[in-house]
Specification:
The protein is α+β, with helices and mostly antiparallel strands. The chain contains five helices and nine strands; from the N terminus they run H-E-E-E-E-E-E-H-H-E-H-H-E-E. The two termini are 29 Å apart.
Length: 148
């Protein structure tokens, strides 16, 4: 960990403590045995977690885990073209959303192309994704039908 990581990490912890207070959640300070710091909040019986991890390249990634019931087992992954995820993928087929500019900027993989097209037909969703310099959205099914 560099000296800058220590400085920004402690500032992030202050921000995350404030976020936890504002959303009625809990802040968990990281450490050697606890991993990175995180915020957890209970929302309508679900536990939503915001945390970070360091990938194999040393980049700190912020992620949110928000479980939901996935009755039809729809899964998808979305990330920017030429991103780390794009460079490390193997053998997956891109799904075209039908929006040429969006398809040129993002890779979408899924088990249901019709649902992907319907999801990304929404202008607001596409605009929010456009604003993210780096983004990786992954909705997957766990064994019990619960998804992240």
């Amino acid at each position: 960990m560099s000296i800058l990581d220590g400085f920004f990490g402690s500032k992030r912890d202050l921000v995350w403590e404030r976020l936890a207070d504002e959303v009625g959640g809990n802040f968990f300070e990281g450490g050697l045995s606890f991993g990175e710091s995180k915020v957890r909040a209970r929302v309508d019986g679900w536990v939503v977690t915001l945390d970070t991890y360091r990938n194999e390249h040393g980049t700190t990634i912020t992620r949110i885990h928000a479980p939901y019931i996935n009755a039809d087992e729809f899964t998808f992954t979305l990330f920017r073209r030429r991103s780390s995820e794009d460079r490390h993928r193997t053998g997956h087929v891109d799904i075209e959303t039908g929006v040429a500019e969006f398809d040129a900027a993002f890779v979408t993989e899924s088990n249901d192309s019709d649902k992907v097209k319907k999801l990304f037909a929404d202008d607001k969703i596409r605009q929010l994704l456009w604003k993210q310099r780096e983004v990786h959205v992954h909705a997957r099914t766990l064994n019990d039908g619960l998804c992240h």
